[in-house]
Amino acid sequence: MAGGVAELLTGRMTEIIDAARDLLEAGGPEAVTMRAIAERLGIKAPSLYKHFPDKEALEAALVAAGYVEQAEAFAAAGRSRNPLAALARAYRRWAMEHPHLYMLMTNRPLERDRLPDGVEAAAAAPIVKACGGNPDRARAAWAFAHGMTSLELANRFPPDADLDAAWRSGIDALQAPHATQPRSTT
Amino acid sequence: MAGGVAELLTGRMTEIIDAARDLLEAGGPEAVTMRAIAERLGIKAPSLYKHFPDKEALEAALVAAGYVEQAEAFAAAGRSRNPLAALARAYRRWAMEHPHLYMLMTNRPLERDRLPDGVEAAAAAPIVKACGGNPDRARAAWAFAHGMTSLELANRFPPDADLDAAWRSGIDALQAPHATQPRSTT
DNA sequence: ACACTAGGCTAACGACGTTAGCCCGTCAAG
DNA sequence: CTTGACGGGCTAACGTCGTTAGCCTAGTGT
């Protein structure tokens, strides 16, 4: 059984995940209840446990599907010229189109053994490439994008903030163009 | 009415918030139940509703207290030379010391009218100052710090990632607009 | 003396995740 | 055919959660 969670999804499982996702995107996280998922499928809540051991496992599958979809959205942007800016746009865009799913994917610890291996790494790969393979800078850029996105979704910026300008400012700074000296301040 | 939530806290209210906070820091968010808070105070859960209209209001008060405390921790760092780096260290440090509270403060929307006015702004002010008053760059820096912190707390970085290096890389890039070395031979 | 109020209490409701146990259809092996 | 395993439904129920209704008591201002 090694492989952990990388088990294949039976048809019924994907139906369940789709139902959960519809509820999530329509009504936020508190709309995703076992009873509501079941009702949407015309079955009763306990039947869901024939397919997933518990709600957390179901959510983990939802998150995994999200990462796959996200990775697809990023792949195209990664091939652009000025890939960092394009990726940032794609990142923000995807999150704004699926705000609740994005938060489910990033908020809270969510132990990694619930996720198929490498699913996160695949989504992150284009960013690393866009940072010229510098993993520290790539993580910084990822953190910046996630931070902007998370704060925007959580409504943490003042209403008059110019978020486009903030994104530009950050991307601009984090670009790894000239003067990529690891030691800059003497 | 005006003033919103800026009402003063009666003695009993701060006791309740302290109890909630103890539970939060000790057992994570799901340990914070109305019954558990009450038990810690030697009373019963419904009595809490004599002091807070609902659990969300109680959590909002907890979050507000967190912002105040955070702002205090940042104030000192803001007065350092190289304030951006010092603030980043303080930011990360505070979050690591209060991980659950930090997540409660930043995750999920949490409508702002629950918070006393300006409590967020006060915490953000030193960052703006450290960015030479450039608000876009300040927001980018804030987002970077929050992103790094959030991803670290959510266990999103691979175990072998050098987070100190990533922080350094980001701070370095975001420092001042154009390679504004503090003392470049002026 | 009396009413008001702050702040406790018990009982209970409905929604939630979850478990136990039953049942029925399909289908391969005898 | 019969049979037996099993996938995938079902009902009933449990314990926990936030929350409400309604009662009671000690202190206080008039």
Output the keywords.
8 helices; DNA-binding; homodimer; Arc Repressor Mutant, subunit A; mainly alpha; disordered C terminus; 186 residues; 61% helix; Tetracycline Repressor, domain 2
Structure overview:
- The structure is a homodimer of 186-residue chains.
- By secondary structure, the first copy, chain A, is mainly α.
- The first copy, chain A, has two domains: 9-52, Arc Repressor Mutant, subunit A; 63-174, Tetracycline Repressor, domain 2 (Orthogonal Bundle).
- Chain A has eight helices and no strands.
- Chain A is elongated and about 55 Å long.
- The interface between A and B is large, with 47 and 47 residues.
- Chain A binds a DNA duplex (30 and 30 nucleotides) through residues 12, 33-35, 43-47, 49-51, 54-55.
Compute the gyration radius of chain A: what is it?
19 Å
**What structural class do the secondary elements of chain A suggest?**
mainly alpha
Largest sheet of chain A: none
Give the CATH level 1 class of the largest domain in chain A.
Mainly Alpha
Termini gap of chain A: 54 Å
Query: What's the domain count of chain A?
Result: 2
Shape of chain A: elongated
Oligomer category:
homodimer
Give the largest chain-chain interface (CB within 8 Å): A-B, 47 and 47 residues
Percentage beta strand of chain A: under 5%
CATH superfamily of the largest domain in chain A: Tetracycline Repressor, domain 2
Would you list the SSEs of chain A in sequence order as H and E?
A: HHHHHHHH
